[in-house]
Amino acid sequence: MRQKEVRDLDTFLFQELMKETEEERAILEGNQAVNKKIYTNLTSDFVIQSEKFLEDNLIMIRKHPRYIDFPRHSHDYIEMNYVFHGKFHQKVANEPITLKQGDILLLNQYIEHELQACEEEDIIINFIIHPGFFDYILSHLSTGFIQSQMLHFLMNSMFDYTKKGEYLYYPVSDSDRIQDIMNQLLKEMMEESILSKTKIKFLMGLLIIELIEQKNQTNQNSLKSEHHAFLTEVFRYIEEHYQEANLQALANRVNQTAYWVSKQIKALTNQNFKDLVQEKRLLMAKNLLVYSDLSMQSIAEEVGYENISYFYRLFKNKYGMTPKAYKMQLIKQD
Questions:
Q1: Which of 33, 78, 121, 196 is most buried by a 10 A CB count?
Q2: Do the Cβ atoms of 106 and 172 come closer than 8 Å?
Q3: How much is the pLDDT for 225?
């Protein structure tokens, strides 16, 4: 490694990240197949599951294992790849992409990719992010960000309204602000102080805002911008009022008729307003089942359902089991 590269990197971080993990040692000792049990409980499709890493957190940071090709897979979370040192070759939806040192790649939970084995000095950091982490960020962004592709990416990931595989590539090695944030995030990952989890959330929010401001992500034509602005207002309203959201209140907010708003939502998302609200409510209910000790009745009421039987039916249709069964499954996994 060139001396200039050593000086440009944080020496402590580089030395720590160069150390081999238990998974990497197993690979070097001859285990040349990815141990899927580390990543998923599924036996058919290779879908990496957030429950394997997040536990009761919304964000988890880990070093990508070197020395082995990673087969085609997807995730049930938002993933961010960051190249701390070296390079990273992968195919994203069959498109070859090489990330250079300092680059960032965001992938939503509907896209597949396969990864080429990293060499010893290729240090890649994976950020595993629960879609629910972005609730707070989206509800507090100003309207000045409405044309950002990042916002569209996050809303699609959170609301399932297209289920389209998407990724965002940011060649940001020249951004001192972004690289400084990344170094702070990695230090918190390494040092694990009592406030590390809180600091990581704040730093991640700051990083997302910095990426939103990247000008190379805003090249949309005026019609798409109008549609994006409208959808942003729709999702912002649902974020803020999902418990009691109604179409007429949204129509008043955007100064249009309820009929026009309903048609626009259907045309742009292939779902109706009620579907989007229900999607948000069930996501929040799922989060409460994971991260709270509220009763089923309280959870139903908290997300906007007075009729618990109706809530149970909607939840089972969405996730394939009742809320109670889902909660019991989580307890057994612990």
A1: 78
A2: no
A3: 58
